Amino acid sequence: MRQAKVRISDKGRVIIPAAFRDALGLKAGDEVQLRIEDNELRISTLRSRVREAQAYFRQFKKPSGRLSSAEFIQERREAAKHE
Q1: Which of left, alpha, beta for 12 (phi over 0: left; psi -120 to 50: alpha)?
Q2: Is residue 25 a contact partner of residue 47, using CB atoms and an 8 Å limit?
Q3: What is the mean pLDDT of residues 1-21?
Q4: Number of C-beta neighbours around residue 11 at 10 A
Q5: Nearest to 30 by CA among 49, 19, 15, 46
Q6: pLDDT band for position 74 (cuts 50, 70, 90)
Q7: CA–CA separation, 76 vs 74, rounded Å?
Q8: Which of 6, 24, 43, 65 has the fewest Cβ atoms surrounding its Cβ within 10 A?
Q9: What percent of the residues of the chain are helix, what percent strand, and what percent coil, each to the nearest 5?
Q10: CA distance 8 to 40
Q11: Which residue(s) pair with 45 in the sheet?
């Protein structure tokens, strides 16, 4: 199920159908992020936002497999030894 029709309550609440919650692994009390994008309301989970961030930062990974940040940290540790 990728689409559902729901009604907004008089208090602005929307019920996310169980099949959607199950598909996203959402449980009562979980936080989600709402944003308006392309004139649509988008709901995302923490898990999906982490995956997006990981994909973004993957572009900074060097061919050696190391991140620039890892090299920077190692350089700072070496410099600290000589201080």
Answers
A1: left
A2: yes
A3: 92
A4: 5
A5: 46
A6: confident
A7: 5
A8: 65
A9: 40, 15, 40
A10: 15
A11: 32
- pTM to 2 decimal places: 0.58
Dihedral angle, C-alpha 24, 28, 29, 34, nearest 10 ° = 40
- Using CA atoms, how far apart are residues 14 and 37, in angstroms rounded to an integer? 18
Cα-Cα end-to-end distance for the chain: 61
Residue at 66: amino acid letter: R
In whole angstroms, what is the distance from residue 67 CA to residue 30 CA?
31
What would the pLDDT profile of 32-49 be if each residue is shown by its tens digit? 999 999 999 999 988 888
* pLDDT confidence of residue 65: 65
Give the chain's mean pLDDT. 87
Structure-token pair, residue 18: 């169980």
φ and ψ of 46, to 5 deg: -60, -40
d(CA 15, CA 18): 9
